[in-house]
Amino acid sequence: MDGDRRWDRAVGPLQFIPTTWAVYGADGDGDGKVDPHDIDDAALAAGRYLCRAGGDLSGSRGWSEAVLTYNRSGPYARKVSRIAGRYAEAT
């Protein structure tokens, strides 16, 4: 996907590893293509990945589990939570 035959590097705006994309990739904009470089496709795939990882995302425990599956770092999870909170307030 990134043109490198030796290493599996993350690609696209949401940085999918090709093997993960093969499982969760999706056509988010209905154009008939499943492309990790397309933000609509990548966003839908990320949602599928996070929901599978965290189970019930309606509460903080499931949400945290999902985010920590993406990157197993407490500071990262807290940063994502702060940014998500600011985004929710702005919309």
From TrEMBL:
Alphabetical list of SUPFAM superfamilies matching this protein: Lysozyme-like
Pfam families cross-referenced by the UniProt entry: SLT_2 (PF13406)
All copies of domain Transglycosylase SLT, residue ranges: 10-54
InterPro entries assigned: EF_Hand_1_Ca_BS, Lysozyme-like_dom_sf, MltB-like, SLT_2
PANTHER family: LYTIC MUREIN TRANSGLYCOSYLASE, MEMBRANE-BOUND LYTIC MUREIN TRANSGLYCOSYLASE B
Protein name: Lytic transglycosylase domain-containing protein
